[in-house]
Amino acid sequence: MTTSSKKTKLIIALGLVYIIWGSTYLGMKIGTETVPPFLLSAMRFILSGTIMLSVGFWQEKEMPTRKQWLNASLIGILLIGIGNSSVALSVKYMPSGLVALFIAALPAWFIALDWAFFSKERPKPLTLWGLVLGFAGLFYIFDPFHLFSAGSGAARSYPLWPIPVLTVGSIAWALGSLLSPRLDTPKQFTSSGIQMLAGMVSCIILSCLLERHDWHTVETMTIRAWSAIAYLVIFGSLVGYTAYSWLVNNAPAHLTATYAYVNPVVAIFLGWLIVDEVLTWQSVIGSVIVIGGVVLMTVGKVKKKH
Asked: For the whole model, what pTM was predicted?
């Protein structure tokens, strides 16, 4: 592949992940209005995984080895079974824009896990300041101890228990992304299909354990809910996930991670525009702080590599 061709693919892949994945938070929010979150994820990825794996076998014409199947399945469990499912669960109970904003701190987990288990390189001071600033912004927004909203008369309309769920999901997503280029996996489409189906199996297990009493809601799904699933399958999984999979294997990790501070802007705007999610000044100010912190983390990583 020529340098010009790779640069073009890089720009297209980043653009797709920036915009499409920012909109999937709203898609999951709408879908979970009717269907329980783990079942929604299972429905989404059984469709997209089957399509993706079929395309992979047809186009790439290569049968993965047992080791490649296992490696791709491990990545799928981390990225989809844990990472994506934590988001689907959280958007059911929290504003989709705030969930996206929490995920914006994902580069922090990339940096921490890369330092601890992979590169062993200590983050630069600028990166550390970005980490502090990013988490300070999240603390300001969610205000668990009512330090900033006390006396304002504004009561939080959502619970905070999804925060540790999102934290576990973020760590799993970062770990899966860091492992992906380091493990022997099949070619891109085949690998993505295996990952989706492995994640789907994880979602089914979680749904069986936690949501069995809500499965009847599938019978009452509206066109709105089916449309959300169709959007998640086509754009969120087949297009967006393929673009992300290409990025983690072909682009620098610090560049791939930049999607984390574009997605919240898209998600917050769409949540406000389409499902009337409340946008407070506290959320706006905190968003600026978080995104500023993520920019510092990314800039710190870039400077470190020069």
From this structure: 0.86
- Number of neighbours of residue 26 by Cβ within 10 angstroms: 25
DSSP classification of residue 154: -
Neighbours of 220 (CB within 10 A): 9
Residue 120 burial by Cβ neighbours in a 10 Å radius (0-12, 13-18, 19+) = exposed
Q: How far apart are CA 267 and CA 96, in angstroms?
A: 7
Tokens of 225: 């809910």
Q: What is the pLDDT of residues 108-141, one digit of tens each?
A: 888 889 889 988 888 888 888 888 888 888 888 8
- Distance CA(167)–CA(171), nearest Å, equals 6
What's the chain's Rg over C-alpha atoms? Answer: 19
Percent of the chain with pLDDT over 70: 94
Give the C-alpha separation, 184 to 68, whole Å: 6
Q: Are 241 and 46 in contact (CB under 8 A)?
A: no
Residue 100 CA, chain-centre distance (Å), reads: 8
Residue with tokens 């749904």: 207
Which token pair is 165?
Answer: 């769920």
Token duo for residue 11:
């720009």
* ∠ CA 185-189-194, rounded to 5°: 60
| Cα torsion angle, 51, 52, 55, 56, sign | negative
- CA-nearest of 207, 169, 161 to 46 is 207
* C-beta atoms surrounding 144 within 10 Å: 9
Tokens of 301: 């990583």
Q: Of 184, 185, 303, give the one whose Cα is nearest residue 252.
A: 303
